[in-house]
Write a structure and sequence with these properties.
403 residues, two-stranded antiparallel ribbon, 14 helices, alpha/beta, seven-stranded mixed beta sheet
Amino acid sequence: MEPEPAPTTGRALNGSPPRGPPRGAATSIGIILLCSIAFLISTPNLNSFTIRGSEQLDTENGGPAISSSIRASNNNDGDDEFSLARTQSFGFFNDISNDNWKRLQTMVAKHWDHKFPEAPLTHHPAWKGRGQMADWAVHHPAWYQTNFEPNFSCQFEMRIGATGEVSRGNGDGPKWICDPHRIKRLAAERKAKDPNHPGCVIYSIGSAGDFSFEKGMEEVLGPGTCEYHIFDMGDFEAKMKLQNISRAHYHRWGLDKQGVEKIEPGAEFYGLKDTVKLLGHENLDVIDVFKIDCEKCEWRIYRDWLLSGLPSLQQIQVEIHSGNIGKMHQSENHEHDITPEIPFFNFLEEAGYVRFHKEPNIQFNDGSCEEYAFLKLDKEFFAPRKKMLAERNITRKDISTKE
């Protein structure tokens, strides 16, 4: 008869209780337990941490659905890991850490708008010192190459235009949009809060019958996400309808400088304030995208974009034009500058806009026209920049400061 195997449970052969694991194993288990406890203590909201990680991955579909409890934490002004970006972007960015947001602040603060800060009109055709350079070096493309580069970065920016045969996202017509998945998220949150809210609203001024941008936005954001208002004096409404863009409205008028608020039906031009009233948008908090290509009218009307009583323009996509703009410029007070470009950019920055993209139009132009994309941020974001500019204390030498 073979001997019975030694018991593996119960009591030991000598009748004493079984011994625990070896001393080395017990020490290892204790270390693992202590590390686990330390991790849990340092991560007070593990559930939120996990969801945040997955939220950054799904940009194509606007990010995952956010539970009511997490949405509530995202919409408050508490000092959590993402509070700086959320509050200073009016809720647009909700997943950028405070450390990374401060990096963006520093990037904007240190940015130089001009290659020649004391004479930023260098290379401009209106520059009084143009005799110091050869004629081939004095033109608008050279000036834009040495001034006002982008000073901000959107991680998921997209050049949006229809993917069909019209543009496939290339050519003249598509526009650069900052993180479009965030527009989709905000539209869903607004609709959840108020079913009568349009979700997101897009103004598109100047189309010339090209609707590739609007069609592309619908492809990216999904049908019904946004309400599109397209303005042009040409007869392109039938062509727009062939695009089958849901919730698209065509308005056959142009945008001009806002005068006395007196709306006359059937006018060829309206100011922006009158336009907002005509469309019943006075109570909107924000127009998500304000895209404008109006063949030089931007110099005459850009100050109207930020008039009191208007919805905030979250993103501005504008093609700025060069050439004979003297009459448009002379009618404005441009702080003694002899051209409108520098006052234009300064005005938008002082209102809280960063530049996240710049693209020369070289398909039908020599680069004298530039596509710029701006994003609205809270003025608190610019506090480090204001301090930096004060320290630089640059005095311009290319204009007169006398009346």
